[in-house]
Amino acid sequence: MLKAGVLGAGHLGKIHLRLLNQSDKFQLVGFYDADADNGKKVEAEFGYKYFKTIEALIEAVDVVDIVTPTLSHYDCAKQAIAKGKHIFVEKPITNTVQEAESLRALVAEYGVKGQVGHVERFNPAFIAVKDQLDSPMFIEAHRLAEFNPRGTDVPVVLDLMIHDIDVILSVVKSKVKNVSASGVSVISDTPDIANARIEFVNGCVANLTASRISLKNMRKTRFFQRDAYISVDFLEKKCEVVKMKDAPETPGDFDMVLQNAEGVKKQIYFDNPEISANNAILDELESFADAINNNTTPIVTLHDGTEALRVATMIIDQF
């Protein structure tokens, strides 16, 4: 079992602590939190060992799970890598693209592995359809959330939209050609609602909307590709696949057939795959353990995290 320690015991950090503690692939050694009062409180409430310094925790583990505020991701990861420790770092990977590039170089230099916590890659609805996503040419993503003061220290692009940016970049196998965007600050000092249009070299266009001041929550992405429409509801963990094929000579009574202006007939059919329930955060952590133990490439690499941040930064620069 890999010895693991968590940096940061806030809302998400406590979730990571609980899941690492119950995992068969990790031995949770303990955690560090810069707020000593919070650290002692979490230790007393849950029984996890609280380390008084970040250095002491790093020395005691094989894997460092970084769930601190984004501004400190780089410094925490740099310290861990320099001690030869593998790093799992929550999204966004770092505060700047330059920091992210530096981490990639350090991981290569010290021969350790790194993974970024883009958890939607492990969403069961996305997993169920990702093998059917084949060169989509138009993508529409909506990620809307009710207001929550937690996370408002960063633009909504880094707080919410970056999830969809990463998913889209994992699906569209082409370089980004152009980005246009707009954002509005309503409650926070940084934009609370944003819309972005990403154009890719292969002609694919992605339209993304993110808001943290909505009246209801929504996390839905629609993919349009040749002869198929695929919808993924990341919140409800549901998916819908609608496909078209050449209509049979003699359609059945219940067959759905469309005919275009040229007289070409297509049959519409539904091909909704089975969705297997999971805990996405536990799965992403355990997939990292597998990558370390089997010396394979993590599912969400530091390169992936860097590119998602790069596009997010391009969007923010448009505001």
TrEMBL record:
Residues 3-118 form the Gfo/Idh/MocA-like oxidoreductase N-terminal domain. One of its GO terms (molecular function) is nucleotide binding. Residues 156-216 form the GFO/IDH/MocA-like oxidoreductase domain. Pfam families: GFO_IDH_MocA (PF01408), GFO_IDH_MocA_C3 (PF22725). It comes from the Bacteria. This is Predicted dehydrogenase. It comes from Olleya namhaensis.
